[in-house]
TrEMBL record, chain A:
It is a multi-pass membrane protein. The keyword 4Fe-4S does not apply. It comes from Devosia elaeis. The chain crosses the membrane at residues 12-30, 42-69, 89-109, 178-198, 229-249, 269-291, 333-352. It is found in: Cell membrane. This is ABC transporter permease. Keywords: Cell membrane, Membrane, Transmembrane, Transmembrane helix.
Automatic annotation (TrEMBL), chain B:
GO terms for molecular function: ATP binding; ATP hydrolysis activity. It comes from the Bacteria. One of its GO terms (cellular component) is plasma membrane. Coiled coil: none annotated. Residues 8-252 form the ABC transporter domain. Keywords: ATP-binding, Nucleotide-binding, Transport. The keyword Transmembrane does not apply. PROSITE patterns: ABC_TRANSPORTER_2. This is ABC transporter ATP-binding protein. It holds the Pfam family ABC_tran. The keyword ATP-binding applies.
Length: 378, 254
């Protein structure tokens, strides 16, 4: 590959990442996560987290309102599926554009402040969007019921080319329904592309400016940079990522509800990024996978399954274990997540990626200090 | 010798903070290619004056003119893009980034202007900028530390790096706020040599400094500030012999 486009290390990272993602149905099967619905969510929230990291990880602005862009992406996609065509590509396209415009306006206003004030402003705007979706904007969002596809949708483009559908409408890609593993590979393609774009941004002069803004905004200004358009660009790019993720969720599961714009959803992507490793490329994706895994797998466990699992223990002891562990699964999965989060933040402030680095450094040292110098030798 | 070009003109600047008259009636003319030192006891208003020049503080009245352009009311990044760079009293650097990147960033600011959505290239392919930065790091003696994280440099090295960050922009005017504060005698002398080297390139400099050794080895002209006023102005020898200065500053220090 052209060295101007990508360094060798980045290329290997991208190839490795692609392999891991595409092989997920195989290697996640033993963990009980090898089913398409969950895999699609892994991809979608991976995209959300990669985009969020461009703002939070690179530029250092902590937004608590990114679920708003996710929601805008979802609604836009469903409207495109309803009004224009069941094909997914226009839905995704419009979702990215509209959420980007929305991010431009909100970012323009919020970036007048930095630090905690910026965070609070984003939170306020996201909560306003959430409340509007439930009240004034009900004609657009269909309120609590959520926006969904119906047989009577106009779908003008489909009608114009003479496509007719029988039964419940399902989004398609060039005529093929997007569901199951097809849906997973569709989303996986987007995750890989967006990961590549994030890599390019992080390695470009523009990405360096974002890191410099995070490091010392005063110096940036006295160095001759107008930092606001840089931060705004990062904000809009991450908003577009969120919109794409929201649209993919709407395409694979065509029902958009306002709850995905709530502040808890904004907080979730913050947790994903911190858990995986702020400012790293792979970390936020891993954080997203772990949180979605816990959400789906742990919440599906119940006392009966636990009782079967602890069956080998003597009577009395097994009921004790079922009672205690039962608190951490099912509805209590947030408790496990909270514990894991606390442990990671206390012992590995750099997230899981810091753990990976430490383990790698340990191997390096025992391996005779061979590879530690490779970077300096370049 | 022909009349020297005035690059920076601080015209009738006053600065009040509430009841405090921090700067009164400041009129300064900095000539092209000269090193102009501003000295004075603590609290004389030296840093305030520098902050007014650089656009960090608006003057209460008066204005600062740089090469025909009024600086008053402009943003720090606009002032930098006009060709004024500043070394801070406490180094302002990108502590999380490598030394090399710290020096490449100002070079990119010089080339790309105050904003450019430069996403299609990689930083590694900016070989011209990189070579320029490496050359500059060689000049300040930090080339062997170019891959270190800037935050882990010693205090003296941080200052040297900050100087390199300013010099790589080839500014027309360089403002230095106590460039040798906190440095060992040896580091101070290296810095003086470095600044003399820049002087040979004809860069105009304004230095605020406590260290008389630094001031008298570098300055072509000295202005003495006391209680917000310029009490003396002239060649180093004239200023040294001025009784008012001895009373207000030099005498008081001994």
């Amino acid at each position: 590959m052209n060295p101007a486009l990508m360094s060798r290390n980045d290329l290997f990272l991208l190839l490795g990442f692609t392999l891991v993602v595409l092989a997920m149905p195989i290697w996640l099967a033993p963990f009980g996560a090898g089913y398409p619905d969950l895999l699609q969510r892994f991809m979608i929230y991976g995209i959300f987290a990669v985009g969020f990291n461009i703002l939070f990880g690179l530029t250092g602005y902590l937004s608590f309102g990114h679920a708003a862009f996710f929601g805008v992406g979802s609604y836009t996609a469903v409207w495109s599926l309803k009004l224009l065509t069941l094909d997914a590509i226009p839905a995704l396209f419009f979702a990215v554009i509209i959420s980007g415009l929305f991010a431009l306006v909100i970012g323009f206003l919020c970036l007048r402040r930095s630090g905690i004030y910026f965070s609070i402003l984003t939170l306020a705007f996201a909560q306003m969007s959430y409340n509007l979706a439930y009240s004034v904007l009900t004609p657009i969002t269909n309120g609590e019921t959520g926006l969904q596809l119906t047989l009577s949708d106009p779908r003008v483009i489909d009608a114009a080319v003479g496509h007719t559908f029988v039964g419940q409408p399902i989004p398609t890609l060039l005529g093929t329904p997007i569901g199951g593993y097809a849906g997973f590979y569709f989303c996986a393609g987007f995750l890989i592309i967006t990961f590549f774009i994030a890599q390019r941004i992080a390695g470009s002069p523009f990405g360096m400016m974002l890191k410099a803004i995070k490091s010392n905004q005063t110096r940036m200004q006295f160095t001759g940079f107008n930092t606001r358009p840089y931060a705004l660009s990062a904000f809009v790019i991450s908003g577009m990522y969120a919109g794409l993720a929201g649209a993919l969720l709407a395409v694979t599961d065509p029902l958009a509800g306002a709850e995905r714009m709530q502040w808890t959803a904004s907080g979730e992507v913050v947790l994903m990024t911190i858990l995986g490793g702020v400012g790293t490329l792979v970390g936020p994706v891993i954080g997203a996978w772990i949180i979605k895994y816990f959400e789906n797998i742990l919440s599906a466990l119940n006392d009966n399954i636990l009782a079967r699992f602890f069956d080998f223990l003597p009577d009395g002891v097994d009921t004790f274990f079922v009672k205690v562990i039962g608190k951490f699964v099912g509805d209590g999965w947030h408790l496990t997540l909270g514990l894991v989060f606390v442990i990671i933040v206390i012992f590995l402030p750099g997230g899981i990626m810091e753990g990976v680095r430490r383990v790698a450094a340990m191997f390096d040292r025992s391996g005779g200090k061979t590879s530690t110098r490779t970077q300096a030798a370049e | 010798m022909a009349q020297n070009n005035v690059v920076l003109h601080v015209a009738d600047v006053h600065k009040r903070f509430g009841g405090l008259h921090a700067l009164a009636d400041i009129d300064l003319q900095i000539e092209e290619g000269k090193t102009h030192a501003i000295i004075g006891p603590n609290g004389a208003g030296k840093s305030t004056l520098l902050n007014v020049i650089i656009g960090k503080l608006p003057p209460t009245s008066g204005q600062v003119v740089f090469d025909g352009t009024i600086l008053t009311g402009r943003k720090p990044y606009q002032i930098n893009q006009l060709g004024i760079a500043r070394v801070f009293q406490t180094p302002e650097i990108f502590a999380d980034l490598s030394v090399l990147h710290n020096v490449m960033i100002p070079a990119l600011a010089k080339r790309d202007g105050m904003f450019r959505l430069n996403m299609l290239r990689t930083l590694d392919s900016e070989t011209g900028i990189r070579a320029e930065a490496e050359h500059m790091l060689e000049d300040v003696g930090l080339i062997n530390r170019r891959h270190m994280q800037a935050g882990s440099l010693s205090r003296g090295d941080k200052r040297r790096m900050e100087l390199a960050m300013c010099l790589i922009q080839h500014p027309r005017l360089l403002l230095l706020d106590e460039p040798t504060a906190g440095m060992s005698r040896h580091d101070t002398n290296t810095t003086i040599d470095l600044l003399k080297k820049i002087k040979a390139r004809g860069m105009t400099k304004v230095i605020i400094e406590h260290d008389m050794h630094v001031v008298f080895s570098l300055a072509d002209k000295i202005s003495v500030l006391a209680q917000g006023r310029i009490i003396a102005d002239g060649m180093p020898d004239q200023v040294r012999g001025n009784p008012k200065v001895q009373e207000a500053y030099l005498g008081g220090a001994h």
